[in-house]
Amino acid sequence: MLRYDWAATPVAYAYWHQKSAFALERDVYESWTMFAVEDGRFSYEIGERKGEAGFGDLVVCRPGVPFIRRTITPLTFHFIHFEWNSEMTDEYERELSGKHSVSDVDRLSSNYRYMREVGFAGRQEPAFGRMKHLFHDIWQLVDMERSSADGRGSAAAEADSAMQTARQWLLAHAYAPLVYRELSDLLGISPVQLTRRFRAAYRMTPTAFVTELRLARACRLLAETGLPLDAIAQKCGYENGFYLSRVFHGKKGTSPSAYRKLYRV
User: Fold this and answer.
1) Which of 32, 93, 151, 203 has the most CB atoms in a 10 Å sphere around its CB?
2) Computed from CA positions of residues 151, 152, 158, 164, in that sequence, does the dihedral angle turn out positive or negative?
3) pLDDT at 131
4) 103: domain range?
5) pLDDT tens-digit series, residues 157-196
6) Is the domain of 199 the same as that of 243?
7) Which residues is 32 bridged to in the sheet?
C-alpha cells in the first residue's frame, strides 16, 4: 500500500478523553488529518466513504474534503494533523483517505500510550522526534498488514469481506458477555469456520482479538482512573476483578496493581 520510502510528519497533535460529542459535526481541514480511536465509537463520512470506527481504526481525511462525524459512544482518540514527505497522485490520495484498521491492537495500544506521554510541543526535541517515530510506526502497521492481506490473493480478499463484518461486530460487543455462536449465525457459517477465516484474515482468533481489546481498555482504566479492579473488570467484559487479574497476568506478565503503579498518569 505505502511506498517504503514514504513517511509522514505530524504537525499538530491533541488527545481527547471520553468526548461525548464533537464541537463541529462537519469540518474541512487544510492538512491531512487522522482520528486514531482508542476507545468508544463514532460514525464518519468522507466523500463517498462512510462507516463507523472504533478501537483499532484510523480514520484519515485529506485536505479540503468535508469531514462529517458524530460520536456514537463517548470517544477517546488521538487527533493528528500531518503532512506526507513526498508528492502523491490524486488517485493515491483518494485511496489513503478513509478508514484503515490495524489488527495488532497490542502494539497499537503501546504506541498510543507513548503518544499520550510524549505529547506535542511543536518541533522541540526530543518530543518531536519521538512523536514522529510513533506516528510512522502506526503507518508501518497499516502498510505491513495491508501488504500481508494483498499477498493472500483474491480468494482471501473475498473472505476478508465477511471477516470485516465480524471484526466490526466484535468491536461493538467486546465489552459485554459474548456468545460467538451469534456472530457465526449472523455470517451464516459455523463457529469453526469463523475461527479459521478470522485467523486467516487477522492472524488471530476472534477470542484472542476480544481479549486484546479488553486488556487494552483495562490498561487505560488502570493508568487513567482510580476505579477499583472489580469496576474495571465490569467495564471490560469480565465478571470480576479476580478473573481479570488472572487473564491480565497471563497476557501481560504482571498484575493489574503493578501495572497501575508503573503507568498511573
Assistant:
1) 32
2) negative
3) 94
4) 8-150
5) 444 678 889 988 998 899 998 899 999 999 999 999 999 9
6) yes
7) 82
